[in-house]
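Homework help board

Subject: predicted structure for assignment chain

Our instructor gave us this sequence and asked us to write out the predicted structure in token form, then describe one feature. I got the tokens but I'm not sure how to describe them. Can anyone check?
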Amino acid sequence: MKRLLLIIVLVVAGINASAQCAMCRATLENNFSNGDPGIAAGINFGILYLLALPYLAAIIIGYLWFKSTKDGGRKISKRIA
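My token output:
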């Protein structure tokens, strides 16, 4: 089972992926070749923004979950004592 999982991970890791659609890529290459890197910088900032939001949400939810379980354990121990 471990070997199968390892093989799948290695095969998937070797596949080249293109993250931009063809129209976005063509527009960015055209503007960048004409000397206007402003749109490309904006698209890159947008991609980073969309990348960071799920991680930020997971960190906030994890912190709130940790905080609630930490406080819940204290309430139970006070009732027992």
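Reply (TA_rk): Your tokens look well-formed. For the description, you could write something like this. Residues 16-80 form one domain. That's the kind of observation they're looking for.
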